[in-house]
Amino acid sequence: MKADPAVQRRLLDLADADAELNRVQHRRRSLPELDQIGEAEREVRAKRDELVVAETAFSDLDREVKRLENEVEQVRKREQRDRDLMAAGASAKQLEDLEHELQTLARRQGVLEDEQLEVMEQREALETNVTRSREALTEAEERLTEVQERRDEALSGLESSEARLQRDRDLITKALPDELVALYDRIRSRGGVAAGLLQGSRCGACRIELDRTALNEVREAADDDVVRCEECGAILVRTGENR
């Protein structure tokens, strides 16, 4: 392939633009905020799970409190009914039975109220736990939002840089022959640098020195020949000093 030496030198500008693009794309993939978001998301999930556990425990205990309240209320109603029967003039046998039942109801009410008090204290502690879990979840969600905003801000800046670099690259490629750009892009698609300056006997793309035979072949090539590094395959851009 042939190309004017001045045109070939423009490949160095293209390689520089691609190197900058690669750096920007690498920074996008390796933003510290990405790992931080992963950690924050895991924390949010953990806090949500903790809140579900706390709310479930509180709900179960709350139902138990209401059950005990209903039982106490039923005992009180039964007590009031017995007292009403006694006041209505029950027989001696009925009075004896009612008094015995009232004693039983009093003991039952005492047991239920003690149990109710204990469960209510437990519920109060669990309610505090639910409140703390909700606060912890809110804090975790706020941290996640904060790091997401930092990521979005960083990505916005990188996207602007990438768009600018891509415009610069497009301007360079439009000024180059299509065949030369196609060769450059094929080399670049394999990874590594697609064009580098020949510096003495060293390839500017892979930084490896050419052996004597390869170097002589490069130097003997015509100025407009497009030559390539035998080590990495990159296009070797030559100047007057290294011909």
Describe the structure.
With 243 residues, the protein is mostly helical. It folds into 2 domains: 5-25 and 177-242, Helix Hairpins; 31-160, Orthogonal Bundle (Helix Hairpins), CATH 1.10.287. The radius of gyration is 42 Å and the shape is rod-shaped. The two termini are 18 Å apart. Helix 2 (32-87) runs antiparallel to helix 3 (92-174). Strand 1 and strand 2 (202-203) form a beta hairpin. It is 76% helix and 5% strand. It has 5 helices and 4 strands; from the N terminus they run ααααββαββ. A 4-stranded mixed β-sheet has the order 2-1-4-3, with helices on one face. The mean pLDDT is 91.
What is the number of E strands?
4
Strand proportion, as a percent range, falls in under 5%
Give the termini separation.
18 Å
Number of folding domains? 2
Please give the order of strands in the largest beta sheet.
2-1-4-3
Number of discrete helical segments: 5
Largest sheet: 4 strands, mixed
Pfam families: CT398_CC, Zn_ribbon_9
Protein name: C4-type zinc ribbon domain-containing protein
Keywords: Coiled coil
Domain CT398-like coiled coil hairpin: 14-192
Topology:
Elements: H1 5-29, H2 32-87, H3 92-174, H4 178-189, E1 195-199, E2 202-203, H5 212-220, E3 227-228, E4 235-237
Parallel strand pairs: 1-4
Antiparallel strand pairs: 1-2, 3-4
Helix pairs in contact: 1-3, 2-3
Keywords: Coiled coil
Organism: Saccharopolyspora kobensis
Domain C4-type zinc ribbon: 202-236
